[in-house]
Amino acid sequence: MSLTEKQRLFVRAYLIDGNGKKAAIAAGYSPNGAEVAASRLLSQVKVQEALAAARLQLVAVSGVTPEWVLSQLQQMATLDIREVVTWQSEATEMGEDTETGEPILNIVNRVRLVDSDQLTAAAAAAITEVSQGKSGLKVKKVNRLEALLAIARILGMFPGQAKAPPKTAQPPAGATPPAPDQPETDAGGWGQLLN
């Protein structure tokens, strides 16, 4: 069974962000009935099969498999901040207390970035911002909790959730997954490590 033109357009749009209503509108369905149309389309076997086939084709072309996604999330969730910055306290003697004769110490806390060319690819992918401002050095990374929750959802670790997705086709021999992009920051998705 072949898809109608609207169904084909729906499948193509749905692959972009998984939003049925948006995909239905992009396929030419009325905005007023787009949610109902999306629900109906997603329940049709031929649309489900077309989505599955398109996803397999994307995996084959891109090399991005569920296993690769999980490995990227795991690297982001387990980044140790010491891979990115070092810190230490330095004490210097400034003189003697005239009453007790004890040394007066000046304690300075220093934070230093690891040179970017010394970062692992996983550490570099997990860092979203490095900046120096009035309040000092700031390093932002992917939010560990968000990454762990995404892993848990993929693996079906929450009660009532579907189990892990079936294993998909492997990328072609010699294909390498794309280098991870720097994730965009958003209000709910990133945490600040240092101020």
The DSSP helix count reads 7
Radius of gyration: 25 Å
Beta fraction: 15-25%
> What is the total domain count?
2
The H-and-E topology, N to C, reads as HHHHHEEHEEHE
Helix-strand makeup class: alpha+beta
Please provide the count of β strands: 5
Note the gap between the termini.
Answer: 58 Å
Protein model, in words:
This protein is 39% helix and 22% strand. With 195 residues, it is α+β, with helices and mostly antiparallel strands. It has two domains: 5-62, Terminase, small subunit, N-terminal DNA-binding domain, HTH motif (Arc Repressor Mutant, subunit A), CATH 1.10.10.1400; 71-179 and 190-194, no CATH class. The protein has a three-stranded antiparallel beta sheet. Strands 1-2 form a two-stranded antiparallel sheet. A hairpin with a 6-residue loop joins strand 1 (85-96) and strand 2 (103-113). The longest helix is centred in the first third of the chain and has 18 residues, at 45-62. The radius of gyration is 25 Å and the shape is elongated. The model is unreliable at 161-166 and 178-195 (pLDDT under 50). This is Terminase small subunit.
Question: In brief, what are we looking at here?
Answer:
The protein is an alpha+beta fold and 195 residues long. It has 2 domains: 58 residues, Orthogonal Bundle (Arc Repressor Mutant, subunit A), CATH 1.10.10; 114 residues, no CATH class. It has 7 helices and 5 strands; from the N terminus they run αααααββαββαβ.
